[in-house]
Amino acid sequence: MIRLGILISGSGTNLQAIIDAIEADTLDVNIALVVSSRPDAYGLTRAEAGGIPTLALTKSDYEYPIAADERIARALQLAGVDYVVMAGYMRKVCAPLLTAFPQRIINIHPALLPSFVGAHAIADAFAYGVKLTGVTVHLANEEYDRGPIIAQRAVEVEEADTLETLEQKIHAVEHVLYPEVLQLLAQGRVRIADDGRVAIL
Q1: Distance between CA 25 and CA 16 in Å, rounded?
Q2: CB neighbourhood size of 112 (10 A)
Q3: Per-residue model confidence (pLDDT) at position 142
Q4: Dist CA 193 CA 24 (whole Å)
Q5: C-alpha 25: how far from chain center
Q6: What architecture is the 2-200 domain classified under in CATH?
Q7: Nearest of 30, 36, 2, 1 to residue 18 by alpha carbon
Q8: Contact 89, 118 (CB under 8 A)
Q9: pLDDT tens-digit profile of 135-167?
Q10: H helix or E strand, kind and range, residue 126
Q11: Strand ordering across the sheet containing 132-139
Q12: How far apart are CA 199 and CA 151, in angstroms?
């Protein structure tokens, strides 16, 4: 069974979706450690309720991002983590993490990459007036939101949608898609081809 390290910054709803999938026996993984970029993140409470070890960093820790990522990488390695899962983690991962877990850091993004990169993807897509947006699960690399795509799922933007209802629809898809992709990883069905594309076996 693969061991996950999950990186969070906020409420941890994707973390909760992963925990729920594990408890429902639809996801065969173990969460070895939850790391938060904020000590007041509610996701830490979710982790602690599930008996999951946690590590919380502070804003001052990130004044030296390389040192912060070195600390995180060491903690994840000591926990025996196989894959690092970014679940609403609002910090860019740096070289120490990317080197420690090559092609094993997964991110979820609330848009159909390569469109609408960045931290405000749902609002940006809504403001642009697109009729179709969605969710992307991809491998993280040194380029923000530019890593190889593992899976995508579309979400239709309806005329009656507001930004708030679109956010709800996007998050609902995230909570289904992320555990599904992690189960593919657990089954050894995700392969990275020589050209960098991801294949699902």
Answers
A1: 14
A2: 20
A3: 87
A4: 32
A5: 20
A6: 3-Layer(aba) Sandwich (3.40)
A7: 30
A8: no
A9: 999 999 988 888 999 999 999 999 999 999 999
A10: helix 121-128
A11: 54-56, 29-36, 2-8, 83-86, 105-109, 132-139, 149-156
A12: 10
Which are the catalytic amino acids?
Answer: 109
Q: Which residues contact 36 (CB under 8 A, 6 or more apart)?
A: 7, 8, 9, 43, 44, 54, 55, 56, 57
pLDDT digits over 56-91, tens only? 999 999 999 999 999 999 999 999 999 999 999 999
Indicate the DSSP class of residue 187: T
What is the 3 state secondary structure string of 136-165?
EEEECCCCCCCCCEEEEEEEECCCCCCHHH
How far is residue 62's CA from residue 93's CA, in Å, rounded to a whole number? 11
Contact 83, 181 (CB under 8 A): no
Q: What percent of the chain has pLDDT over 90?
A: 95
| H or E segment to which residue 198 belongs | strand 198-200
User: Which candidate, 187, 143, 190, places its Cα nearest to that of 27?
Assistant: 187
